[in-house]
Amino acid sequence: MGWCVMVKGPCLGEKCDFWARVKLRKQTVDEIVGEILSSMTPCADTSIADIEGALDSYWGDIGIKDMEAIRREEPGLYSKMKQVEAKVHSKLNSSSS
User: In percent, how much of the chain has pLDDT > 70?
Assistant: First the structure.
């Protein structure tokens, strides 16, 4: 296993999500929420499972590999991601009412 100068640690290879983390750090919560909402197909009945699936897809699409690793390594970023998820749930639940 090699050394990564970007993360200043061992190279994670296929599990590397360095650039996804950088992107999330630079964006505001509202910007990320807007991206997620604009990428979702509107439907009349959005269940919690559908929303969770869409959120998981979004995190994967931008390059997040391991949420548990983010929770351990960067609690602030993990908290920001959870804020985003809460806002998405809130906006979708209020729009379906």
Answer: 91
